[in-house]
Amino acid sequence: MGPVLRVLIRALSSWAILVAVGAFWTIGSPAYGQGGAQVPVQGNNTPATARATAPFDPTGYWVSVITQNWRLRMVPPRKGDYLGIPISVAGKKVADQWDLARDEASNDRCASYGPPTIMNQPTRLHISWQDDSTLRIDTDYGTQTRVFSFGQPPIQRKRTRQGTSVAVWEARRGRGAMTARYLTVTTANMLPGYLRKNGVPYGEQATLTEYFDIFSEPQGAMIMVVTAVLTDPVYLEHPYIVASQFKKEADGSKWDPTACSARW
User: Fold this and answer.
1) From CA 112, how far away is CA 101, in angstroms rounded?
2) Domain layout of the chain by residue ranges
3) Is 6 left (phi over 0), alpha (psi -120 to 50) or beta?
4) pTM of the full structure
């Protein structure tokens, strides 16, 4: 990904924060985790684990903060509503053939619960370390599980709904020194799915890159911003960029797992 697009992505993420909480996150040039960067080591000269080098603690329970696109996120749009999606001619052709009854009769009603869409849904997240090199995200909306592998992920020969996700801690340079660090996650090997419940598609060639930022509001509340960039050479004319916000909760008392639905 080129520097211009990366700066645009960070700018969109900062704009979303401004809308949500009235704060601006300063943008710099990503530097950590790229070619030539040094890998942190522990005292015995072995590489430090992803958990040990985490610049922030993402674990715990988080709830979606629906500050934009309420109509599209809370109420499934009608057939033919592609507002905001750079859908291609091929994508429109597929979406125009969407049928709710067919989806409801299917054994798999989770087409709109894949990585390109699940983080932008009205959901709660439970984030935990599965082990020192694997971060796990569970959603109560659709009861989905995403697994982020730092380093080489396990071999996955078959496509799955959540695909294969590789994660890396990165940082941006400010005034000559490494400053705020964030999480970059790249996901591929996904089953085809929907960007919305009205059948707007993404396909097998789609690749998703996400940027996770966490910061504290002046009142002390923890906010997480997830900026997602989806590329699909078949169904999209250019990358589809979406920013989603989450607020950390004290515990899991409001956790409410629900099954996938083609209707809501």
Assistant:
1) 15
2) 3-35+57-249
3) alpha
4) 0.82
